[in-house]
Design goal:
Layout: H1 17-47, H2 50-61, H3 63-83, H4 90-118, H5 121-144, H6 152-173, H7 179-202, H8 209-232
């Protein structure tokens, strides 16, 4: 989401050093909150048996059901993205953050259930650690480099659009997206993290830390999904 520069919409990069530091602390605090909410929702889905039920339903129904879940996730993601940028409505901002965390947990539930059953908790833990290290490294690069990374935006946009077409095509026609696809998606998620990390400082106003956290959370979870997919196929 692009912001027009005005007195109330001044990008963080033009704010005082103290305000920039405060903004970044709040962004990563809320990112951690989103991750914690994801883990909490996922735990509930597993404890109630919902994760197993979703997995079994998808196994019986095939690709069409995945399309319904993917469509529902995209709708929830859109509403969440809109709500987190409502300056005068903190409730809507946090509703968007927890909404996207729940949507992610719902999408992940059948996949995580399958990985736990076949590969065990160690595979999930390993993928989570690698994702965390990768995210931290990309964050450092984005802040340290003096290069303008805005050129990554069209690459990320068109890359994810192409990936969505392939995913839908795979669900409809039954062709398999292998490890190479997952590796490309990890790279694309990394590019997205680089761009968004720099973008939140260059474009976002100081009040938009919840929206910034949601933007980073989406890319972080996409990277985790495909790293887990690679690890589960070892």
């Amino acid at each position: 989401m692009a912001y027009q520069q005005s007195p109330s919409m001044t990008p963080v990069i033009n704010a005082s050093e103290e305000d920039r530091a405060s903004f970044l602390v709040k962004v990563y605090q809320h990112l951690a909150l989103a991750v914690a909410a994801f883990v909490g929702f996922e735990t509930i889905l597993f404890m109630t048996g919902a994760a197993q039920a979703i997995h079994e339903f998808l196994a019986r129904s095939g690709g069409a059901s995945w399309l319904l879940i993917l469509g529902g996730f995209m709708v929830i993601n859109w509403f969440a993205s809109q709500s987190v940028h409502k300056l005068d409505n903190p409730t809507a901002q946090y509703g968007g953050l927890f909404g996207i965390a729940f949507a992610q947990s719902f999408i992940f539930a059948p996949f995580l259930y399958q990985v736990f059953q076949i590969k065990g908790a160690g595979t999930v833990a390993s993928a989570a650690v690698v994702t965390g290290i990768g995210f931290a490294g990309l964050t450092i690069v984005a802040f340290v480099t003096r290069k303008d990374l805005s050129f990554l935006r069209p690459i990320v946009m068109w890359g994810f659009m192409a990936a969505l077409v392939l995913i839908i095509g795979g669900a409809i026609f039954g062709f398999h997206l292998g490890v190479i696809f997952s590796v490309v998606m990890v790279a694309l998620s990394g590019a997205s993290i680089l761009y968004q990390t720099q973008n939140i400082v260059r474009r976002y106003p100081t009040w938009a830390y919840v929206g910034a956290a949601v933007a980073l959370f989406g890319s972080l979870m996409t990277m985790f999904w495909y790293i887990l997919r690679i690890f589960s196929r070892r």
